[in-house]
């Protein structure tokens, strides 16, 4: 298998470009690809140093550069080297330009400006960390989302992912021997979502967790009957309170979060429709 080089150039942090490349590469599993990541490319001198590296390791070049001179220099050099070069966001930007009827503001790193939305995300992350695993349940009414589920149903990582999208999230473990606080069942502002999973998958995850902590892999924590009882208890709580339920068995954190965001959007749309009725 021949090794391929992929060069990623951005005039900002490059986070968007890196995620795009990662998503695309996932469609070509098994390929030997070396990614060269070049963030904060904002000067001709910096670009020239990178071009030397590209010439030494030829491959596909993806970029998100808004400065016309920098873009032109990169494209001209890649053509001279006979290398494919792709402006990763141009098609989307062109479509939006047609939609809005005006040209975009070509400002490097504009999507990462510390605007009000940025500080909202920081606040959401702080809230979420402070309300992990049932902590500070007295403040749950201030949350946008509350996740409930038995141990190891991805509540914490899903909460953090949602917080990075600007949602204030709390989560609570459902434990048979320790029922959740009554306040959970009377929440009005937050969307409460139940997370569940298949018993065999949950046992495998829990057993791996025990091994990572150097603990005995066979305890009540992974007992089949106990796990089945936990899941049944949680599902009964979800059903009794008519909470939406998401099965995380075959979902990634991103997929679970996307499903929760869809539920939030549906609820907001329903509330808006009722107000206008």
The assigned structural class equals alpha/beta
| Quantity of strands, as a count | 8
Note the gap between the termini. Answer: 62 Å
Strand content: 5-15%
- CATH-level-2 architecture of the largest domain: 3-Layer(aba) Sandwich
Domains (count): 2
Could you name the ranges where pLDDT drops below 50 across 5 or more consecutive residues?
A: none
User: What shape does the CA trace take?
Assistant: globular
Main beta-sheet annotation = 4 strands, parallel
Radius of gyration, in angstroms, nearest whole number: 24 Å
Helix coverage percent? 40-55%
What attributes does this structure have?
277 residues; alpha/beta; Rossmann fold; 4-stranded parallel β-sheet; 9 helices; 14% strand
How does this model look, in words?
This protein is of the alpha/beta class and 277 residues long. It folds into two domains: 4-111, Rossmann fold (3-Layer(aba) Sandwich), CATH 3.40.50; 116-276, Rossmann fold (3-Layer(aba) Sandwich). 47% of the residues lie in helices and 14% in strands. It has a four-stranded parallel β-sheet, with helices on both faces. The chain has a four-stranded parallel β-sheet with strand order 6-5-7-8, sandwiched between helices. Strand 3, helix 3 (68-81) and strand 4 (85-87) form a beta-alpha-beta unit. Helix 5 runs antiparallel to helix 6 and helix 6 (155-164) packs across helix 9. The termini are far apart.
């Amino acid at each position: 298998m021949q090794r391929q080089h992929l060069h990623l150039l951005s005039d900002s942090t490059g986070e968007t470009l890196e995620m795009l490349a990662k998503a695309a590469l996932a469609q070509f599993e098994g390929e030997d690809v070396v990614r060269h990541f070049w963030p904060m490319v904002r000067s001709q001198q910096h670009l020239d140093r990178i071009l030397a590296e590209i010439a030494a390791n030829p491959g596909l070049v993806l970029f998100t550069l808004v400065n016309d001179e920098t873009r032109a220099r990169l494209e001209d050099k890649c053509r001279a080297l006979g290398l494919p070069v792709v402006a990763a966001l141009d098609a989307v930007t062109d479509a939006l330009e047609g939609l809005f009827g005006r040209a975009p503001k070509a400002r490097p790193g504009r999507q990462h400006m510390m605007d009000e939305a940025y500080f909202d995300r920081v606040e959401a992350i702080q809230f979420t960390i402070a309300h992990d695993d049932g902590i500070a349940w007295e403040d749950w009414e201030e949350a946008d989302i509350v996740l409930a589920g038995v141990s190891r149903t991805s509540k914490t990582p899903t909460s953090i992912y949602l917080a990075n999208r600007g949602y204030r999230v709390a989560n609570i473990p459902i434990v048979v021997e320790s029922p959740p606080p009554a306040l959970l069942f009377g929440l009005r502002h937050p969307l409460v979502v139940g997370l569940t999973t298949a018993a065999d998958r949950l046992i495998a995850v829990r057993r791996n967790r025990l091994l990572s902590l150097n603990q005995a892999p066979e305890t009540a924590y992974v007992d089949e009957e106990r796990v089945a009882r936990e899941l049944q208890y949680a599902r009964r709580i979800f059903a009794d309170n008519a909470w939406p339920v998401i099965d995380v068995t075959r979902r990634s954190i991103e997929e679970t979060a996307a499903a929760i965001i869809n539920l939030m959007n549906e609820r907001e749309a329903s509330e808006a429709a009722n107000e206008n009725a």
